[in-house]
């Protein structure tokens, strides 16, 4: 679907910096783009159904365990904890968010999920409510 992409990249190739991933594949980036230290912890993120982060790659093991791969194509909304799929989530009509963990979460992780979930709930309820529930797993 991106027929013109190779030509566009070739046109700016000399202005880009290159890296190699763990598998030796070539990666390109802008020279001044922010790149966090590899030890920087990934923040909790709530992703919508069919998000490109879990759906758009042949090798999804970098973000989702094999046991949960079907979630991405089933249209589940997922929660990333430490950069990996750790829960699914949904919202009621009032914007209340319910999180369903796929694994046991440590206390700090739960707190971070609730905090990020409050922001999602406020957005969905247009500032009226910030209800977040973590369902027992």
Task: Describe the protein.
This protein is α+β, with helices and mostly antiparallel strands. It has helices at residues 5-12, 52-55, 70-74, 107-124, and strands at residues 17-20, 26-29, 45-47, 77-81, 84-91, 97-101, 132-134. It is elongated, with a radius of gyration of 18 Å. The model has no long low-confidence stretch (mean pLDDT 89).
Task: Describe the structure in brief.
By secondary structure, this protein is of the alpha+beta class. It has helices at 5-12, 52-55, 70-74, 107-124, and strands at residues 17-20, 26-29, 45-47, 77-81, 84-91, 97-101, 132-134.
How are the SSEs placed, and which strands pair?
Layout: H1 5-12, E1 17-20, E2 26-29, E3 45-47, H2 52-55, H3 70-74, E4 77-81, E5 84-91, E6 97-101, H4 107-124, E7 132-134
Parallel strand pairs: 6-7
Antiparallel strand pairs: 1-2, 3-4, 4-5, 5-6
Query: SSE order in H/E notation?
Result: HEEEHHEEEHE
Counting DSSP E segments of at least 2 residues, the number of strands comes to 7
**What general form does the structure show?**
elongated
| Major sheet | 5 strands, mixed
How much helix, percentage-wise, in residues?
25-40%
**How far apart are the first and last residues' alpha carbons, in Å?**
40 Å
Percentage of residues in strands? 15-25%
Output the radius of gyration: 18 Å
Overall average pLDDT: 89
Give, in spatial order, the strands making up the sheet with the most strands: 3-4-5-6-7
Structural class comes to: alpha+beta
Uncertain parts: none
Compute the number of helices: 4
């Amino acid at each position: 679907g991106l027929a013109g992409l190779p030509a566009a990249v070739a046109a700016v190739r000399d202005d880009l910096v290159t890296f190699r991933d763990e598998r030796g594949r070539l990666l390109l980036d802008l020279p001044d783009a922010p790149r966090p230290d590899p030890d920087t912890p990934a923040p909790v993120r709530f992703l919508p159904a069919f998000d490109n982060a879990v759906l758009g790659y042949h090798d999804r093991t970098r973000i989702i365990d094999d046991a949960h791969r079907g979630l991405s194509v089933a249209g589940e909304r997922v929660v990333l904890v430490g950069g990996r799929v750790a829960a699914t989530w949904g919202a009621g009509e009032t914007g209340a968010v319910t999180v369903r963990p796929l694994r046991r979460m440590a206390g700090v992780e739960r707190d971070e999920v609730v905090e990020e979930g409050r922001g999602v709930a406020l957005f969905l309820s247009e500032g009226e409510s910030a209800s977040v529930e973590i369902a027992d797993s």
